[in-house]
Amino acid sequence: xxxxxxxxxxxxxxxxxxxxxxxxxxxxxxxxxxxxxxxxxxxxxxxxxxxxxxxxxxxxxxxxxxxxxxxxxxxxxxxxxxxxxxxxxxxxxxxxxxxxxxxxxxxxxxxxxxxxxxxxxxxxxxxxxxxxxxxxxxxxxxxxxxxxxxxxxxxxxxxxxxxxxxxxxxxxxxxxxxxxxxxxxxxxxxxxxxxxxxxxxxxxxxxxxxxxxxxxxxxxxxxxxxxxxxxxxxxxxxxxxxxxxxxxxxxxxxxxxxxxxxxxxxxxxxxxxxxxxxxxxxxxxxxxxxxxxxx
Length: 295
Fold this sequence. Notes:
Blueprint (H helix, E strand, L loop, with lengths): L1 H15 L9 H7 L5 E3 L5 E6 L4 E6 L5 H13 L6 E5 L4 E5 L21 E2 L6 E2 L9 E5 L2 E6 L4 E3 L6 E4 L13 E4 L13 E7 L1 H5 L18 E8 L11 E4 L4 H11 L22 E3 L2
Antiparallel strand pairs: 1-15, 2-3, 2-14, 3-13, 4-5, 4-14, 5-12, 6-10, 7-8, 8-9, 9-10, 11-12, 11-13, 15-16
Helix pairs in contact: 2-5
């Protein structure tokens, strides 16, 4: 009888025990976010790079940080400038670069051939959500309007950092700033030493794997030795150039939303089953603003 009572008591304790704690993960926070916490990306800010093999790369442009370069890029896309262009440089753990590779193809009349050095902009007017973790390349980092940002309150400047999938403008030695015809995407560990040295004009929001998985160039700086190794580009267009029904749509999680704040806390302190020790912080390039296709 005593044995039966002990078994019954143990069973009652198990039944009364709370269910196992389900720790939040970055994907679970995104899944539980509300539709109103997401911001649509304008069609004129989405550049579609269609490779001849059928793969598509989508770049979100950043006119908030590089307005002259972005205006050039839009003009080049609308004119068909990149038809016949190619990815001709793929440097391991660094960048994939594309364009017409120093061709003499005529430029649209509206293109500014020598843009200003849009390597940073005024901090004034930006609403920053601080990351809350230290940074090796800037006094402070955080987020604004859906972009990761490095900033210096004392100098009053802000800039887009070079993180994985960031898109920058190829240029010659200073004072050249590049007009936007040659572009690259970071395909390795964020090359933050390029911050405030080159104009960052956007980020790949879809298809970065198509660039990151390309064969590496064998020449200096990752250039392909033979032109037959180049990866041909079929077309480059803005999403706004397509009929409404054919436009891809993307949205980003607002950095002032409750779900973003929760997502950032989870990124800093993973506590799900695999993580045995919360980090207590996070690097800016490891906590990029979530972007997803819009429904």
